[in-house]
Write a structure and sequence with these properties.
With 362 residues, this protein is α/β, with parallel strands linked by helices. It is built from 7 helices and 17 strands. A 6-stranded mixed barrel has the order 6-8-13-12-9-10. The radius of gyration is 24 Å and the shape is elongated.
Length: 362
């Protein structure tokens, strides 16, 4: 049986490298001379009596518009509210806010949560919430939905979050605290019925801000809207929790410098794999790749020995890169098994406050 060489140094790949997927290209202008259109004035300021429907409408108009950095997602001013932050609709055009959600929620235990990074959920949720403000990729996400009956808590399909309805803000915060580990907390997708006063949305965002939670403003699609599974869901992943296959080949060896030179392409290219998965995989995490270097220096077998990503698209991409690695031929014409721990990290960014007082712009 071959001895597996365990590379003790964690290979940290992509720390600060992955960026959110870009929006689809916009078609060019018609041919021929065209009079330059006057730019439409920003529609980010909302009156004190504004509803959630007006907020969603404003976000739809601002989607894709270049805007200066904002202090928070929703600012309260003396004249009303300001929609700040980067508007990044996960579905275009952004649907209008629904008039009624209480009856819908009675039959909905799990939801799908869409952001620019992809989806949280396994495709079995009856209701989908579409984010329209930017966020960092996250390992987990839940929904808080405001209705005229209070707050509803829903987890993404495939999660173990207990659905709850009619919560006040304190009960909702307690439920969120129970879902947070010592090191991580879920991203909160906040949505509401169309007629919900924006002041109520702001009050919820205030308490979430005080807890330091990341928030995505979102709007629901029609019930039972079919969402296609991401292409990464069908990716084939070779796993080897019990080790590589048995071989009768003699055991060879390589110097540390030869090993580091051989894995250099993996260090360079693996960060791009974060964009091959869904929202959960895009957040990154730890994994271990096992591979066998043949007598000619080529990788003849590669697989995932352990991972915390759970995203087939990301893992399959890493394996493809590992299989293409090339090393110096191991000594004695033998083969060498290597176990490589990797940390994939998405770009780090400060959590943008959900709510603040002031102008909302610098």
């Amino acid at each position: 049986m071959l001895r597996t060489l365990r590379v003790l140094t964690l290979l940290c790949l992509g720390c600060g490298a992955a960026q959110a997927p870009t929006s689809p290209p916009v078609s060019g202008p018609p041919s021929g001379p065209v009079r330059a259109a006057e730019p439409a004035p920003p529609n980010d300021r909302l009156r004190p009596e504004a509803s959630f429907a007006e907020l969603v409408h404003s976000a739809g108009q601002l989607d894709g518009r270049a805007r200066p950095p904002a202090a928070c997602l929703l600012a309260r001013t003396a004249s009303g509210f300001v929609l700040g932050g980067e508007v990044a609709a996960a579905v275009r055009p952004l649907p209008p806010a629904p008039d009624e959600l209480d009856e819908v929620l009675k039959s909905v235990e799990r939801v799908e949560l869409l952001s620019a990074w992809g989806r949280h959920g396994d495709g079995n949720g009856k209701l989908a919430l579409v984010g329209f403000t930017a966020s960092a990729p996250a390992r987990s996400a839940v929904a808080l939905i405001l209705t005229d009956q209070g707050l509803s808590l829903r987890g993404a399909s495939g999660s173990a979050v207990t659905p709850r309805d009619g919560l006040d803000r304190n009960a909702a915060l307690a439920a969120l605290a129970a879902l947070s580990s010592r090191d991580t907390a879920p991203t909160i997708f906040v949505s509401a019925e169309a007629s919900t006063p924006l002041r109520d949305v702001y009050a919820l965002l205030e308490v979430l801000t005080l807890r330091g939670l990341e928030v995505v403003l979102s709007v629901s699609l029609a019930t039972n809207t079919t969402l296609p599974l991401p292409a990464s869901a069908t990716a084939q992943v070779s796993r080897c929790e019990d080790g590589l296959s048995a071989t009768d080949a003699p055991e060879g060896s390589l110097s540390s410098s030869d090993i580091l030179a051989g894995i250099a392409p993996l260090k360079e290219s693996a960060p791009d794999c974060l964009l091959r998965g869904d929202a959960r995989g895009a957040a990154g995490g730890r994994l271990t790749v096992s591979f066998r270097v043949a007598a000619n220096g080529r990788v003849q077998e590669a697989c995932i020995a352990h991972d915390e990503l759970g995203d087939p698209g990301v893992l399959a991409c890493v394996i493809d890169i590992a299989r293409a690695l090339s090393f110096a031929p191991p000594s004695a014409g033998g083969v060498l098994d290597i176990e490589l721990p990797i940390v994939l990290r998405a770009s780090s960014r400060a959590v943008q406050r959900a709510a603040c007082a002031g102008s909302g712009t610098p």
